[in-house]
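Q: Structure tokens for this one, please.
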Amino acid sequence: MSEDFSALAAEFWKQCDKGLEPALATVDGEGVASRAVAVVPVDGKLCFSTMADSNKMKQIALNPRVALCLEAIQVRGTARAAGALDSPEGKPTRDALVAAFGERVEPFINDPGMIVVEITPTWGGFGRLDANEMFEPDFVGRRAHQVRSLIPI
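A: Here is the predicted structure, written as tokens:
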């Protein structure tokens, strides 16, 4: 079963690398919000950009716990603002976004109000109707190990 997850984890990165956007879920006092974000892997973290004054950032400031979902893979983590997209610190994320998304990011990539948001993964798993096991991915090593069976053996 580990091979199955490895294939799904590889597919997650492949989809992100080719420009598919996972859904980002955040919460605030009003409830849960979900929207697609252009995510790229940078230095073992999952990164995206947004306006510093966006609803996403307001929600992350209130509660930094977030979740991403792409296909059948869910990733939970802690998000934080990591500086301006046009700063030296933001350059790796900026370059990765341009490489993955090209023209789709051009309209906003140069906006001085854009910041980098880093998500440090804290848990991950996948769900399929025929899967009875839970796996914990290592986003730095791009691999996973089984943490428990969901059905007692």
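A few notes: The CA atoms of residues 68 and 104 lie 20 Å apart. The longest strand covers residues 114-126.
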